[in-house]
Amino acid sequence: MRTVFLLFVLANCAFFAWDRYLRAPADVEAEAYSRQVQITPEKIRLVRDAAAPGKSNAAAATPGHP
To answer: Is 25 part of any domain?
Structure first.
């Protein structure tokens, strides 16, 4: 069992090294597009918990209600 675990750890380290250092770099245009589409903090809108979908207002207002 210990041998299987060590093989998985070794495979994980090998895959990480290949992915991080040996694989061809990502497409520059795709990376620029993903940076362009990222969410900006100004666009984030917080919603109250009582207005969350799937909960009724009565259940959310009752303390101790599961």
So the answer is: yes
Would you say residue 28 lies in a domain? Answer: yes
pTM, two decimals, is 0.39
Residue-wise pLDDT for 11-35, tens only, equals 999 999 998 888 766 666 677 777 7
Residue 66 belongs to a domain: no
* Whole-angstrom distance, CA of residue 13 vs CA of residue 5: 12
- Containing domain of residue 35, as a range? 2-61
Count of structural domains, the chain: 1
CA–CA distance, 20 with 36 (Å, rounded to integer): 23
pLDDT digits (tens, 9 = 90+) for 33-49: 777 777 777 877 888 77
